[in-house]
């Protein structure tokens, strides 16, 4: 599956993939099937061309939302550490 989203800093791809795997307990691929199952969306390992964009967004949005929350938490922690140093 081709990635269509563009990262402003291409060198960050590896770090983002690592974060995703960490948040999803290892397997980003397996996590999408779990998210789909939780939301009652049929997702096969083969062809999913009949899937509605809305359903695909629900699956990816759950994963992306968790990543954003974790990135914000990490930034807040870093800001607090920097304030304590000053």
Folded structure, characterized:
- The protein has 86 residues and is mostly helical.
- It has one domain (11-85).
- Helices cover 64% and strands 0% of the residues.
- The protein contains 3 helices and no strands.
- The protein has helices at 13-23, 28-38, 53-85.
- It is elongated, with a radius of gyration of 16 Å.
Write the layout of secondary structure elements.
Blueprint: H1 13-23, H2 28-38, H3 53-85
Helix pairs in contact: 2-3
List keywords for this structure.
mainly alpha, 86 residues, 0% strand
Q: How helix-rich are the residues, as a percent range?
A: 55-70%
The total beta strand count reads 0
Question: What is the SS-derived class?
Answer: mainly alpha
Q: Cα-atom Rg, whole angstroms? A: 16 Å
Q: Write the H/E string, N to C.
A: HHH
- Low-pLDDT stretches are none
Count of helix runs:
3
Mean pLDDT: 79
Tell me what portion of residues adopts beta-strand conformation. Answer: under 5%
Multimeric state of these chains? single chain
Q: Sketch the major β-sheet.
A: none
Overall 3D form: elongated
Number of domains as seen in the coordinates: 1
Cα-to-Cα separation, first versus last residue:
47 Å
What's a concise summary of this model?
The chain contains three helices and no strands. By secondary structure, it is mostly helical.
């Amino acid at each position: 599956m081709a990635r269509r989203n563009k990262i402003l800093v291409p060198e960050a791809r590896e770090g983002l993939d690592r974060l995703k795997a960490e948040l999803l307990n290892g397997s980003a691929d397996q996590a999408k099937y779990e998210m789909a199952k939780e939301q009652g969306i049929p997702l096969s390992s083969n062809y999913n061309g009949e899937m509605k964009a809305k359903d695909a967004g629900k699956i990816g949005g759950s994963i992306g939302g968790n990543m954003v929350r974790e990135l914000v938490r990490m930034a807040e922690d870093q800001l607090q550490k920097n304030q304590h140093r000053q």
